[in-house]
Write a structure and sequence with these properties.
mainly alpha, 2 domains, two-stranded antiparallel ribbon, single chain, 50% helix, Proton gradient regulation 5, PGR5, electron transfer activity, 4 helices
Length: 127
């Protein structure tokens, strides 16, 4: 079984062809040129992993987004996030109390909380 392999693109414009079977080896002049063109040390960089970001995909969009952005700029980002956290916690408590009053289970309650978050993002409250 005869096979033809050609190697191009190495340093020094090495262009070589190998004709033979898979059991053959490269010998002679082609081998020495190939051995010189291959780097002996390879530098491997540590793989970088993207940091997860908690970012709103609708940032800047929504009916209330401009008001939220102006309020954040006026009172400061740190204080704004504290107030936002308190508001979200209160809203979650209201949803929990509602679920208790109608007899909804924990799975339904969690679904309502997720729905409230999606609606808040769409309306711009989480901008």
């Amino acid at each position: 079984m005869a096979t033809s392999i050609s190697a191009t693109g190495f340093q020094g414009n090495l262009s070589s062809s190998f004709h033979g079977s898979w059991g053959s080896s490269i010998a002679g002049e082609d081998y020495s040129m190939l051995a010189k063109s291959v780097k002996t040390q390879v530098r491997v960089a540590k793989p970088s992993r993207a940091q997860p970001m908690m970012k709103n995909i609708n940032e800047g969009k929504g009916l209330f987004a401009p008001i939220v952005v102006v309020a954040r700029d006026i009172i400061g980002k740190k204080r704004f996030n504290q107030l936002r956290g308190k508001a979200i916690a209160l809203h979650s408590q209201v949803i929990t109390e509602f679920c208790k009053s109608i007899g909804a289970d924990a799975k339904q309650r969690q679904g309502l909380i997720r729905l409230a978050k999606k609606n808040g993002e769409k309306l711009g409250f989480l901008a």
